[in-house]
Amino acid sequence: MASIPRRERYSSVALSGGAKMATESDQRDRGFDHTEIEPAWQEAWAEADVFRIPDDAEDPAYVLAMFPYTSGNLHMGHVRNYTITDAFARFERMRGEEVLHPMGWDSFGLPAENAAEERDTNPRDWTLSCIDSMREQLTRMGFGYDWEREVATCDPDYYRWNQWLFERFHEEGLVERQGAELNWCPSCETVLADEQVEGEDELCWRCDTPIETREMDQWFLSITDYAEELYEALDDLEGWPNNVREMQRNWIGKQEGASVAFEIPGYGEVDIFTTRLDTIYGATYFSLAPGHPVAQEIAEKNDEVAEYVEMAAAADEDELDVTSGVFTGEYAINPATGEEIPVYVADYVLTDIGTGALYAVPAHDDRDHEFATAHDIPIQQVVEPTEDADIDPEEIDIQEAAYTEDGVLVNSGEFDGLTSEEARERFVEEFDGEHRTEYNLRDWGISRQRYWGTPIPMVWCDDCGAVPVPEEDLPVELPEFVHTTGNPLDAAEDWKHVSCPECGADAVRETDTMDTFIGSSWYFLRYVSPGLEDAPFDSERASDWMPVDQYVGGIEHAVMHLLYARFFTKVLDDVDLLDGIREPFENLTNQGMVLGEDGNKMSKSRGNGVSPQRIIDEYGADTARLFIMEAAQPEKEFAWSGEGVRSAHDFLQNLYTLAVEYETGEVTTADGGSDDDAAIAEYVAREIEATVASATAEYEDFRFNHALQAVRELVSLLRRYREVTVVDPETFEDGLVTATKLLAPVAPHVGEEIWDELGNDGLLVEAVWPVAETPEGHILERRLIEDTREDVRDIIETVGIEDPAEITLAVASAWKHQVADVARDAENVVPAVMQNEELQRYGEEAADYAKELAGRGHVEEFLSPDREQAALDRAAWLIEREFDADVTVLAAEDAPDDLASKAEPGRPAIDIAE
RNA sequence: GCGAGGGUGGCUGAGCGGCCAAAGGCGGCGGGCUUAAGACCCGCUCCCGAAGGGGUCCAGGGGUUCGAAUCCCCUCCCUCGCACCA
After folding, report:
1. CA A73 to CA A77: how far, in whole Å?
2. Stated in angstroms, how far is A798 CA from B56 C1'?
3. Could you tell me the pTM of the whole model?
4. pLDDT tens by residue, A837-853
5. Which nucleotide lies at the shortest CA–C1' distance from A197?
6. CB A343 within 8 A of CB A297
7. Secondary structure (3-state) at A77
8. Which of A259, A25, A45, A7 is nearest to A763 (CA)?
9. Interval A228-264: pLDDT, tens
10. Is A87 helix (H, G, I), strand (E, B) or coil?
């Protein structure tokens, strides 16, 4: 795999280089050529089938990236996403886990139709070619997937199961046909689910076109049946980011409250929903949404109301003022007071929130207050702050502004003095209401008036109504695509006309297709048994392999995809297709954005985009992967940096070169050298162990940048090691091998190349992850060395020593360590030390030191004198090298008294001679 | 408005009760290696200091503690999500 040994290449450069500057390509010739090694190793992995996971694997680590939409292009966001999962999967694999790391294609959707229109082809061919191209790009990045498990949602063998599941849902009573006012995207010419409408401006999630509303009959999945569990279970999803859980909570919008009926004479009882039943005595008017049935009824008799209702229906969202509304002339009876309060129809009351009707309490609700003020409705206070509240009840002027906090009841008849909380509980019974929980979540409208999706397997019969297509006739395949302005399925006459499965009469197929999010709601189950022909997935295996252990993808799916997938999983468990799996994704990571070099979001208009293709061509996949992983922790955003890319590339080249130099004998080695050399080797060996321990922990915690930082430090140490002395071959090679292994999940191609170069058998991808504990005392030791080096620097600098010749370090005597040990645990340090018989011998000295420690308030942990000395011995070379001076490390008893007496635990005495 | 997450040195960013003047990277400065360049290596990069010392410091203010960048409260600012939600 590796080409020419480095030496030959080097000499060829030397021959041709002469005095002129080496070109970039010359430099590259000294290291590896990524265009050569990357495809070669990709082929080697494929041949060895290393990413394949057998069906009989038991509970493998399931590492999953959100599958891409088949746009045809891999962008940096994808590269980051897939680098993270690939690195983690490779890490787990090297640790001996069986790993399920599959890939597939979210391949239905409108863009394919648009592309087909533009290119005079059809969505299928277009999509299939996109898939081929994206698979190729993923492979070039070196991502290791089990391609035998590849799935594509546009494949009839896949979407037949969307249909089959739709019918199962139907049988379970989870499919409903509802007429509703729906979000219509005029550009996509289809309806959208609420989740697919974004922001205040109400834009289509795909094309950013402002949404219109349309009244249509639609197929809905009853996700609201699961609202409670979807909401409550979020608390236990501890492996999920808080913001995603919070977004889902927001979206589901659980509200605990109560409903109470108000009588409107002539119109019967009207249910209201409220979270503030405690304020019922303060209700001074009653308000109906324009869409409320009673409002409609009143409109029939009252022209003014009719006019308002009509206007409200026609008006756009924000067109009407918040105080707009009309008095109906009717009165409602407040069940608490028995009083009649005027009934208004007001646009600020929303039809689909609560019951679409409410009693208004201007004194304790901001919107009601505003409305009451505008309409000259009385404002009656019924709650005042509790005594321990921050606000003085005297300061509250409810004519000026509503007091919306909980408090104590006033003006509420016999209930005065109850707290808000008590009143809410009490009033439910008192006024014949009931506890009620409302959710914001609406049912999931899945009908789309588009071609490139899963046909909804229903047939419309004049006599039988909507009839499901019999299971044996699935899949209902898409007909040939035709170019048309409307829905191509509507135009497919032959396809559309069928006989009714129930009565055999002439009937027509449902021409709407399913929301593409149906396909992504269970694809993670299909990977378990992708070819299965008689069920969507193998239930037993899925129950064993699920949930997904690590799921990584963009935050844009926080509500839509992730909520739908949770919903599907729960339903599938309830219909026994799964066994006890209630949640699909145990741990979730949302990778941050990759910004352009200017710190802004990459975009065509800014021209700050970086194409993965170009980076692979120029620097190779490993460089791109390493740069991305070093740049930031997965969930953080970072800006692309040419400098960073080059740095990653240089590092890989340097490590490779170091390995080659070692292998070709350019690194001078000697077995069992001097004592000094042995000490240095031991230092290096301990650092190797420490690096393994910390890098492993960082990989586990998804802090790849920290792991990689540790690897860089190790490699830097190895370089210094070989510079300062003849190296111990075993230690040095262990260092190289360790660094290579720790790097393997991120830079797998270069890793294999080095692995091979060092003469190892087999593939690195299948090698065993190193295991080591942080050497005992390593942290204290590192601190000691760093402090000491810094002190030496400080002294040389402050004193202005030109050329230090001899540095003597003396460890503190054993009794000082003992004083510190006693002091650490003592309440009263000085007495504790002086009462210690052993320490009494040191009299004044011990007392003085004890006083000093007592003054610090806290005594740190220290190494014992022996271990301090040993640690300094091992690290002496670093000091010698830095200051170009001889270094002597002495035990207290071997050092001159005046020196030794200056030493403290963790702080050797330092003498520097010029 | 409600909710979540944040505000750390020239920048980026770790730390989240003592070992913190605060990791790493970038940038800047000086030095080594080299015919030279790159790469690599060694320092410095808040202020004062002729032996490891002292001062100030982690958005602002207050508090808890022997001790706070780290915990609590208030204020200001940023980012994200939801929002005429009864």
Report:
1. 11
2. 20
3. 0.91
4. 888 888 788 888 888 78
5. B82
6. no
7. helix
8. A45
9. 999 999 988 988 988 899 899 989 999 889 999 999 9
10. helix
